[in-house]
Amino acid sequence: MLYGVTLPLGKPFITASIAGGIGGAFLAATKVQTIAFGPAGITAIPLVIPGKILYYIIGLAISYIAGFIITYFFGIPKDIDEAV
After folding, report:
1. Is this model's pTM higher than 0.85 or not?
2. 11 near 76, Cβ under 8 Å?
3. What is the dihedral angle through the alpha carbons of 18, 68, 81, 3, rounded to the nearest 10 degrees?
4. Sorting pLDDT into bands at 50, 70 and 90, what band is 11?
5. What is the DSSP string of 24-77?
């Protein structure tokens, strides 16, 4: 998805980065930490320090929902939208 869709179009990459920053800000504010380096997203849930897993899941949801909303309104170039 990254190299085939978001980078060639440009705007979706920027909107996804902004959404990730919003979710990351929530995770930083709630002091969510992991016990090791690993993959991001849902697969990282086992690495989160116990007691912060719910905050991590909320942060993921914030990132995913913000990514959808921001990309829906700002991320689709007009020429692609008209061609469809």
Report:
1. no
2. yes
3. 60
4. confident
5. HHHHHHTT--BSS----GGGGGGGBPTT-HHHHHHHHHHHHHHHHHHIIIIIS-
